[in-house]
Specification:
about 290 residues; four-stranded mixed beta sheet; 10 helices; 6 strands; about 50% helix; globular
Length: about 290
């Protein structure tokens, strides 16, 4: 009996210690693979934002994309056949936000569901005046707590084609996954924020809510959709951080600094984003 117990304990230890080592070895192997020329053509055609990155970060992005594509399942929905072009486009935009972070941040992401275009979801919610909406809404993307991201291919293309309008559905949905993993939006509405992150983001969130209540979209750079709740605020702020970094740094330096600290990146030092005054694209609802 003691021998059996010893053998079982040894087996558990081998699995517990061995698996992370095996995963790390696999990832090292994947990162060392050469970049397929087709991927480069897809990035040039579909993800112009990548061209703003310094060369070293572009190389790191390619390596992370290989790991991401080996780890995550892609599922076509409503008859969509998922192509290599789609997988590469999503992987590039999903990996960009974690370039300064550990790729284990996405360990909980299991699969990406792709629809050909905006998809309908059944929703029921109540607005601030108590009016209940019960019906269907069109969505460009959704992020689920169970490690699933749902995206519309048409909206991915549209939002990626303009790299400096602050609207990018892939960055938005994967920011939600980072939020889920780290609890980034949990303390934003507290009266006494426990740390600078919550104090700065909470203040910026309240500013956006007040502007949205007044119907004034000129108070801050951020899309009024971020006033929906703290989760949406972080996702929208992340879109601006990567697509309009110089303008965000000018508009709200404290918010930019906090995001810079979390993402461990300084996109304002990359190639320039849009000149001041450019207007954001229309946003299809996403969650
Ligand atoms: Zn959202």
């Amino acid at each position: 009996m003691p021998l059996l117990l010893f053998a079982l304990t040894a087996l558990v230890l081998i699995v517990l210690i061995g698996r992370p080592l095996w995963v790390a070895r696999q990832r090292r192997h994947l990162r060392a693979q050469p970049m397929p020329p087709f991927w480069l053509r897809v990035l040039q055609r579909r993800v112009p934002l990548v061209a703003r990155l310094p060369a070293a970060l572009q190389a790191d992005l390619h390596a992370r994309m290989r790991v991401f594509l080996a780890d995550k399942a892609f599922i076509g929905c409503r008859g969509l056949e998922v192509t290599e072009e789609m997988r590469v486009t999503v992987a590039a935009l999903a990996c960009l936000p974690i370039l300064g972070r550990d790729e284990t941040d996405y360990d909980r992401v299991r699969q990406i569901l792709l629809y050909p275009d905006a998809f309908l979801v059944r929703v029921r919610h109540q607005d601030r005046d108590g009016v209940v909406f019960d019906g269907e809404e069109a969505r460009a993307g959704e992020s689920w707590h169970e490690g699933q991201v749902v995206l519309s291919w048409a909206d991915i293309l549209d939002s990626a084609a303009v790299p400096d309008d602050g609207y990018n559905v892939v960055i938005h949905e994967f920011a939600h996954q980072l939020d889920d993993a780290h609890g980034l939006s949990t303390d934003l509405e507290l009266d006494t924020p426990p740390h600078a992150w919550a104090a700065v983001l909470g203040a910026a969130y309240r500013r956006l809510v007040e502007a949205a209540d007044q119907g004034d979209d000129t108070v801050t750079l951020l899309d009024p959709y971020g006033a929906t709740d703290p989760c949406e605020f972080f996702a929208v702020a992340s879109e601006a951080f990567f697509e309009q970094p110089a303008r965000l740094a000018e508009d709200d330096p404290a918010l930019y600094a906090q995001l810079q600290r979390f993402y461990r990146l300084d996109p304002a030092r990359w190639a320039p984003d849009a000149p001041a005054g450019a207007s954001p694209a229309d946003r299809v609802a996403s969650t």
